[in-house]
Design brief:
480 residues; alpha/beta; Rossmann fold; Helicase, Ruva Protein, domain 3; Zinc Finger, Delta Prime, domain 3; 4 domains
């Protein structure tokens, strides 16, 4: 049996894409086009990345963990059954292309919906058209939502019953974690497929195809690319095929032709085309949380090299430095605490230094804080103790303050027993008193358990000695 990836894609004249930009042909209506017949005026003006978009699954590069033999997409393609899917992965890896190819293979009507440009009124129209198509020939409609993380709740609620009924098969593409952006009922009706960033080998294959394809690529032009130039474009693209192809197109336009008309792309030309690496990052998205998690865990695991790397990655990608400064202050309190009391002060000083200097000088202050925090002794004893206190408060509610430690500024309050039996610590030679400070219901409870690390070892030793003194004093008082 032939591989389902190599099965021919049968023509589907009814397949469609809603193109809201072409409604000037007929006022107040959107024309529907097949994926291969979207009208264009001048093919030469279409970006190379769009021209090189795979037309068959056989041309599709990457995602072997989904497309390989006996993997989920292999099986779905083999059975020609397409459930609702959410394609989650970084930009430029072929999410939109994969959705279009799957729709063509399933011979379904394909409707493109922009979560940014379309509204609830468009949803109603799509539902009506899909119902008409089903009534006419029983055809399936695939609704492709690009950037589904921008899909607001009203839009999601509008599509939910039609996805649930099977009238619409939803394919959403997103660079963000769908569990944060897609409502639970819709998420539960979709299979989430995680797409991976393209490897350097993938990008090399894609660029070589763009260079040799005479119909859609640069193959009709006499272009020679040095291997080091190609490698530079691949590495700078950071797994993004669209970025790699667009940069190749720019480099080809920058390379001057020699007398024979041949264009030679050298490393300097490739560097000029790319300018600088554009790091993949979204300050409000999943990559943001991935990187801040990496920074925190590197600090917690006492790895200054890893911590410095992730700090620099976030700063280089455009993260707000004061956000990082605030996270470092929190880390100093949560993960170091009293093991090194100076850590909190240094973290606050680092923030103040950045505010005084700005970038790039202030970045060094943050780097200094990161190294200090990474190499400081660690303890979360205060963090654990405080959380345990909050848990007990939640369980027990507003327990009364023991009468002994209540203030008694009036005669009435003294008469009622406020402050009765209170021992003034400074009256004792060692400054210690045996006195309960917790509500009666929590008497004897211990929340803070200092570690043996750093300054907290001194605190632990001090508390142990104090308790021994008070215990001995209590025994002496009970002995006749």
């Amino acid at each position: 049996m032939p591989s389902p990836l190599n099965l021919p894609l049968r023509a589907n004249p009814a397949s469609c894409i809603t193109n809201p930009c072409d409604n000037h042909h007929q006022p107040n209506h959107n024309f529907l086009y097949t994926p291969d017949t979207i009208p264009v005026t001048t093919p030469a003006l279409i970006p190379l990345a769009e021209r090189m978009r795979p037309q068959t699954l056989d041309e599709y590069i990457g995602q072997e963990h989904l497309m390989g033999k006996d993997k989920i997409l292999w099986r779905l393609i083999e059975t020609r059954y397409l459930p609702s899917l959410l394609l989650w992965g970084p930009p430029g890896i072929g999410k939109t292309t994969l959705a279009r190819l799957l729709a063509r293979l399933s011979e379904a009507h394909f409707v493109f919906f922009s979560a940014v440009l379309s509204g609830v009124k468009d949803i109603r129209r799509i539902v009506e058209e899909s119902q008409a198509i089903r009534d006419q020939d029983g055809g399936q409609t695939i609704l492709f939502v690009d950037e589904i993380h921008r899909f607001n709740k009203a839009q999601q609620d509008g599509f939910l019953p039609h996805v649930e009924s099977g009238l619409l098969t939803l394919i959403g593409a997103t660079t963000e974690n769908p569990s944060f952006y897609v409502i639970a009922p819709l998420l539960s009706r979709c299979r989430v497929l995680v797409l991976e960033s393209l490897s350097e080998d993938h990008l090399r294959t894609i660029l070589q195809q763009a260079l040799t394809n005479k119909d859609r690529g640069l193959g009709a032009q006499a272009i020679c690319v040095d291997d080091e130039a190609l490698t530079h474009l691949i590495r700078m693209a950071d797994g993004d095929a669209r970025m790699a192809i667009n940069s190749l197109e720019i480099a080809a336009s920058l390379a001057p032709p020699d007398p024979s008309g041949k264009r030679h792309i050298t490393l300097p030309t490739a560097e000029e085309a790319f300018q600088r690496r554009s790091l993949r990052y979204d300050k409000d998205g999943d990559e943001h949380y991935n990187l801040i998690s990496a920074l925190h865990k590197s600090l917690r695991d006492s790895d200054p090299d890893g911590a410095l790397y992730w700090l620099a990655r976030m700063l280089s990608a455009g993260e707000e430095p004061l956000y990082l400064a605030r996270r470092l202050i929190r880390f100093a309190s949560e993960d170091i605490g009293n093991a090194d009391p100076q850590a909190l002060a240094l973290a606050i000083n680092g923030r103040d230094s950045y505010q005084a200097l700005g970038s790039p000088e202030g970045d060094l202050a943050l780097a200094q804080v990161v190294v200090y925090l990474a190499t400081a002794p660690k303890s979360n004893a205060v963090y654990v103790a405080y959380n345990q206190v909050r848990l007990d408060i939640e369980k027990t509610g507003t327990l009364p303050v023991p009468m002994t430690i209540r203030n008694a500024p009036t005669k009435l309050m003294k008469t009622l027993g406020y402050g009765k039996g209170y021992q003034y610590a400074h009256d004792q030679p060692d400054g210690l008193v045996a006195q309960d400070h917790l509500p009666i219901e929590l008497a004897g409870r211990r929340y803070y358990h200092p570690t043996n690390r750093g300054h907290e070892a001194i605190i632990k030793d001090r508390l142990t000695k104090w308790r021994e003194i008070l215990e001995k004093r209590g025994k002496d008082c009970r002995e006749p």
